[in-house]
Amino acid sequence: MNENWFLSLADARQKVENWRQEYNNEYPHSTLGQMAPAQFAKIKLIGAEVAG
Q1: DSSP per position, 8-20
Q2: Are 27 and 36 in contact (CB under 8 A)?
Q3: pLDDT value at residue 52
Q4: Contact 14, 20 (CB under 8 A)
Q5: What is the pLDDT of residues 18-38, one digit of tens each?
Q6: How much is the pTM?
Q7: Planar angle of CA 50, 35, 51, nearest 5 degrees
Q8: Exposure letters 7-17 (e unless 16+ CB within 10 A, then b)
Q9: 19-39 in b/e burial notation, b at 16+ Cβ within 10 A?
Q10: How far apart are CA 43 and CA 1, in angstroms?
Q11: Measured distance CA(52)–CA(44) in Å, rounded
């Protein structure tokens, strides 16, 4: 990211948080079987609860 993309520190924080949410909740990752990290974690948590 480039500091010129942001209007202020608050703007930078908001844009980074938006990116983080999208990356973790929407963006599929090949190492996770084309699932988003949040989806993968949810499946693993449910599997652990069923097994345990």
Answers
A1: SHHHHHHHHHHHH
A2: yes
A3: 66
A4: no
A5: 999 998 888 999 999 999 999
A6: 0.62
A7: 10
A8: eeeeeeeeeee
A9: eeeeeeeeeeeeeeeebbbeb
A10: 32
A11: 12
pLDDT attached to residue 1: 61
Q: Which residue has the tokens 């990116």?
A: 19
Going from the C-alpha of 40 to that of each of 4, 33, 49, the distances in angstroms are 34, 9, 14
Token pair 């983080």 is found at: 20
pLDDT of residue 2 exceeding 80, the answer is no
**Spatial distance between the Cα atoms of 37 and 12, rounded to a whole number of angstroms:** 23
* Measured distance CA(10)–CA(17) in Å, rounded: 11
